[in-house]
């Protein structure tokens, strides 16, 4: 299975506890998609084509995290962004 999300996309995700946790959602931009074991967000991750990891930069903090695909809730819609004045 190929990754469902791509580098450069802005997504909503749960950084801790999985998609069904009570953890608040975060919003961030995917800066890398890893489909093989390697280093991402300064951590060793066992990614694969079937279980990709996404390096996401948090929109509020600027910090990066390696996130499982199952923890990504969906794409952030343009309508939820602040309109330009």
Explain what the structure shows.
This protein is mostly beta strands and 85 residues long. It has one domain (10-79). It is 0% helix and 40% strand. The protein is built from no helices and seven strands. It has strands at residues 10-13, 26-34, 38-40, 43-45, 53-58, 64-68, 72-75. It has a five-stranded antiparallel beta sheet, with no helix packed on it. Strands 3-4 form a two-stranded antiparallel ribbon. Strand 3 and strand 4 form a beta hairpin. The termini are far apart. The model is unreliable at 81-85 (pLDDT under 50). It comes from Favolaschia claudopus. This is Hypervirulence associated protein TUDOR domain-containing protein. Residues 8-72 form the Hypervirulence associated protein TUDOR domain. Residues 1-26 are annotated as: Disordered. InterPro entries: Hva1_TUDOR.
